[in-house]
Specification:
Low-confidence stretches: none
Radius of gyration: 24 Å
Structural class: alpha+beta
Largest sheet: 7 strands, antiparallel
Oligomer: single chain
């Protein structure tokens, strides 16, 4: 794994000597392929120049990491348990950050702030109980660590924390069972089950399988007060407020999730991708709303706006035959010339159907029939499949951008159906205006997609990026723009977060989001379960 970027060390985008983009490694369908359209899109969109590079620090300088602040009595008792521990700089730095822009930007420059003083690897529930008991006894701060994919500053060590900070890494507690839960967040390669529960995660196939709160049957969590768990695994209980909902979304502030019982399904018999082109975003949203109204959404349905469509097109790998190239040209001609779709307004929905083959085919026809009523044209399986394949490599693109003075990020919200178009339009416009006001010299990329549908609304993802050449403090400018975008989301009736969580990045809006009384309830639970703030990551509160 990279210590200062996303994903595996052998997997990355780069521009070769001919200026063509490539993706290295052998882990993904895109690996080893040329991506001929990316360079032109990258340079024209951001005003970037391949001659202007900002390479990342290649190797962590251990001397840049402050020596650990250790609680000797805690360490000695912990050693006697036989639970693996480490004080190594590399282990501590790796678990001292998530993937917010400011975190990765600093690491690329070799700057390391407050990191855990040591790392501990429990292998079972009882190991966690021992660790928490010793932390309480010796007043040590614990920060649970799952897969490290947080984008809410949740893993950052509070700089004002004077106690010894221990990263409690749960990676050795995972079991592979070979079943399908259907929960597939974009970070599923690296994120953990405990992290999904602690952040109230959502996956791209939630239309069939549900969000994490729909999949969890039983949870066990170790807190400073003891272990929280229900007495049985019944499918539903009417026993007062559901304690699972105190655990889900607690973001490491109350304890460590050690065991989770999940619903499972047989692996789907049949899987089919698809895509639909709409003449504009408005008709695409109307189609998704009708699909949700009729409760016939496929496993996944995601609508990209025009800017994101062009972005996705730029990531298309080089075709292997003249015939394939000819067919692609024919499709483009049919859509833009024969059907009259404007290339600067059209948008695309990607689809994924799963289940029994006969039912999938019936389901597919139903969705395409609805799409046709809103001007949608079937655009083939290949486009749909490529769209979902890109889900797992798109995060690597931020590292490529930062190699050439381009910084960017994504953030999300949920919003009622009657506000979807307004929020998409207004937030994108606010990002463009804020970048201009803050002195960004090049027009930013400001784009969105509708990624999840519900009866009452949808999840919307925003992406923005800009060329920061000429800016003295690009991260500060970025944070100002993101802050303004979040304010715009809330002003337009959107939620603080759909599934990324709050962490420290968004906690300033928590009181307005859940009310004074709601904050008081959360704080009361924290004060009772963890009176000495052993789980002192300072998320949420």
């Amino acid at each position: 794994m990279k210590w200062n970027g996303w994903g595996y060390s052998d997997s990355r985008f780069f521009f070769n000597k001919k200026g063509q983009a490539e993706f290295t490694g052998k882990r993904y369908r895109l690996s080893g392929l040329l991506i001929p359209g990316l360079k032109d899109w990258f340079e024209s969109t951001f005003g970037a120049n391949l001659q202007h590079k900002t390479p990342a620090t290649a190797i962590l300088n251990s001397s840049a990491v402050l020596p650990p602040t250790l609680n000797d009595a805690f360490v000695e008792e912990l050693k006697s348990t036989g639970i693996p521990i480490s004080f190594e700089a590399e282990d501590r730095v790796f678990r001292g950050h998530g993937h917010c822009l400011h975190e990765i930007f600093a690491l690329r420059e070799g700057k390391v702030g407050r990191v855990p003083d040591m790392v501990v690897w429990p292998s079972c529930h009882n190991d966690v109980v021992k660790i928490v008991e010793l932390a309480c006894k010796h007043n040590v701060c614990l920060i649970p660590y799952g897969g490290g994919t947080s984008v809410s500053s949740a893993l950052e060590c509070p700089p004002e924390e004077s106690r010894s900070i221990v990263s409690l890494d749960t990676s050795q507690m995972l079991n592979e069972s070979g079943y399908c839960t259907g929960h597939e967040p974009d970070s599923m390669e690296f994120s953990s089950l405990g992290g999904w529960v602690a952040t109230r995660a959502s996956g791209m196939k939630k239309n069939i399988y549900g969000n994490i709160e729909d999949l969890v049957v039983h949870v066990k969590m170790v807190t400073p007060r003891g272990v929280i768990e229900k007495s049985c695994q019944g499918p539903r209980m009417s026993t007062g407020p559901d304690v699972h909902h105190f655990i889900m979304g607690s973001e490491g502030t109350l304890g460590v999730v050690t065991e989770v019982t999940m619903k499972i399904r047989p692996m789907p018999e049949y899987q089919k991708y698809g895509s639909v082109v709409f003449p504009n975003f408005e008709q695409g949203v109307a189609c998704l709303r009708e699909v949700a109204k009729q409760r016939c959404a496929p496993a996944s349905i995601r609508l990209m706006d025009n800017e994101q469509f062009k972005f996705g097109h730029a990531l298309k790998p080089q075709v292997s035959s003249i015939f394939t190239s000819f067919l692609d040209g024919l499709k483009k001609f049919y859509i833009t010339k024969f059907k009259g779709f404007d290339p600067n307004h059209l948008c695309v929905a990607t689809l994924l159907f799963e289940g029994n083959r006969e039912k999938v085919l019936q389901h597919e026809k139903q969705v395409y029939d609805i799409a046709a009523k809103f001007g949608g044209l079937a655009a083939g399986e290949d486009n749909g499949q490529r769209g979902y394949m890109l889900t797992f490599v798109i995060a690597y693109l931020r590292d490529l951008g930062m190699d050439y003075y381009v910084i960017g990020e994504s953030f999300e919200t949920s919003v009622p159906w009657d506000r979807v178009l307004d929020i998409c339009r207004n937030v994108k416009a606010r990002i463009v205006q804020e970048c201009k006001d803050k002195g960004v010299q090049f027009p930013p990329l400001s784009t969105c997609r509708v990624t999840q549908t519900y009866d009452a609304g949808a999840c919307v993802y925003f992406y923005f990026a800009f060329n920061y050449r000429g800016l003295g403090d690009p991260v500060h400018v970025y944070e100002q723009v993101e802050h303004a975008a979040r304010e715009e989301i809330l002003a337009n009736g959107g939620s603080l977060s759909h599934h990324h969580g709050v962490g420290k990045l968004r906690k300033q809006w928590m009181r307005d989001t859940v009310s004074d009384v709601g904050m008081g309830m959360i704080k009361s639970v924290k004060d009772y379960v963890d009176p000495n703030n052993i789980f002192g990551n300072r998320n949420l509160l």
